[in-house]
Predict the 3D structure of the following.
Amino acid sequence: MANPASRSNFLLALAGIALLLVGGAVGWTLESRRGGGAIDDAEFGSRVHAYIVEHPEVLVEAADKLKNQGGEKQLAELGDKVAQPFPGAVLGNPNGTVTLVEFTDFACTYCRGSAADVEALVAANPDLKVVIRELPIIAPTSPDAARWGLAAAEQGKYPAFHKAMFAAGRTDMASIEGAARAAGLDLERARKFAADPRVTAEIEANVGMARKLGVDGTPAWVVGDELIVGAVGRDALAKALAKARGS
């Protein structure tokens, strides 16, 4: 996931540590009382340190849990907006009954790696609608690629452009125009639409949604009332889709 060590993630990690310490403190306090002994601060600190060293994954798990819980609250506040696509910026079945929202950036290596997972999910789920939210935050050329992606959507050729852009592996203008040709776009029409105020408004709206959800990297996913951050893989997304279906 193209997600640098940010202030928000750092604070979440600290929150995870806090949860671990509180949980451990309660457990060890009860145990000491049960056994009639007392654990002093030094021993308590030593035990906490040893546990964290042996199980560092708990910090990540706690941080992710806190972030996802916060995301659920913000998703509820956003309502249906997050799942309403820019016209044409959809993969899979445009009329699908199950929706997967992806915040993505064409310059994101992890998004590129997740493209095969999304393609496999679409193939396995005829009822799946994948709403793409362009979030161009990785590279200086990301906004150009995002704008052309929305221009491809306007011409009804978003899936082909999406695939060609990730296959190119770069977001310079030569690669963007190459992907546009591969997708069969009218280049002049696309160039003009990429500068349209509607495109600017869409990208700004996506950035605003991401900020509200605490998403500061790509890919990020929304399935039902669940926010999932990172390149979590096909199985995790499939599990979230099954949960959204109620199965």
